[in-house]
Give the backbone structure.
Amino acid sequence: MKNDIYIVIPAYNEAKVIREVITEIKSEGFKKIIVIDDGSDDQTLKEARAEKVIALKHVLNRGKGAAIKTGIEAAQILEANIVVTMDGDGQHNPKDIFKMLEKLDQGYDVILGSRFADKSTNIPTFKILENYIGNIVTWGIYGLFVSDSQSGFRAYSKHALSLIDLQHNRYEYDSEVIREISRNKLKYTEIPIEARFTKYSMAKKKKQNIINGIKTLTSMFMSA
């Protein structure tokens, strides 16, 4: 079954950790990995290619959503039946992929990894507030409430990928997926995932923050 699964990783200036991220995914038996270097100005592409994975590059930084779309398109060309998206900073634990696959086997179209489903998870307070606001806005605009509308750890069936039509290139992408689930009446579920908030991941300049959050919300309202 793993031969049909592609792991898509958007990456921006992740040269310090991308090889470790790839190695950890491979250790769980997932070999088909697509890394999209989204216009990095470091050695992200070189480091990814050193791990013998498919590594593509955007010449310019286009945004997380654009990188994921490029990765999914590549996976579809390669006839993937399942696509799992993960962040490139090591925040996600690839062991959680197995829980997603179990749900897909049960007939779900989209599996949403939720960092907030497990109340015992140690999450910074500002991240909880940031996510809550995002959840409320996503629900208000798209009519579907989920516990982690901003999660980048998700799994899609081939059927879901054939129907989901996404337009945004940056952080709006994560919420836009929720719209597409509702619009296409896709069967979805959320599962708790481990969230590893390290000093490295929290310090990244391109991570979602208050300013980016305001831009994201404005774009969502304008396109609704």
Observations:
- The longest strand covers residues 5-11.
